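Hi support team,

I've been running sequence recovery on a batch of backbones for a student project. Most finish fine, but this one hangs at about 90% for roughly twenty minutes before it completes. I'm not sure whether the input is malformed or the queue is just slow. I've pasted the structure tokens below so you can try to reproduce it. Let me know if you need the job ID as well.

Thanks,
M.K.
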């Protein structure tokens, strides 16, 4: 009987020791280029060049579908605030111009971020999604 208990305890310890532990989540890194997939709740036009690049010096740049944009940002923990400083002024087809306007409108509303399932979600102060981006 003692042998059986000892054998059972040994098997239990072996099984517990072989359990895999979940891998730690990779640390989130904002710095880099992110493709904009959705703005103001609407998906972007296929093959749209809309993207944002966050640099280590708290500057951002990118493309809002038609024109290049640039500005400053503040990022600390889950807080993210963008201050668009300017953009080029090219004309594009109407669909891209409308998409560009949506993106420009939401940029100043952003004040929080969340990183979920490989997506960067930029939120307004009420927690509503403004932009959804994926790493390029």
């Amino acid at each position: 009987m003692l042998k059986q208990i000892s054998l059972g305890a040994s098997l239990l310890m072996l099984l517990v020791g072989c359990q895999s532990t979940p891998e730690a989540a990779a640390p989130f890194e904002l710095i880099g280029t992110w493709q904009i997939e959705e703005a103001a709740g609407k998906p972007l036009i296929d093959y749209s060049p809309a993207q944002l690049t966050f640099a280590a010096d708290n500057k951002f740049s990118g493309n809002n579908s038609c024109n290049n944009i640039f500005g400053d940002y503040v990022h600390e923990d889950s807080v993210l605030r963008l201050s668009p400083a300017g953009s080029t002024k090219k004309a594009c087809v109407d669909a891209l111009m409308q998409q560009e306007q949506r993106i420009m409108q939401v940029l100043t509303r952003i004040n929080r971020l969340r990183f979920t399932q490989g997506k960067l979600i930029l939120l307004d102060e009420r927690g509503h999604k403004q932009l959804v981006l994926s790493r390029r």
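--
Follow-up from support: It reproduced on our side and the slowdown came from queue contention, not your input. The two ends are 62 Å apart (CA to CA). No action needed from you.
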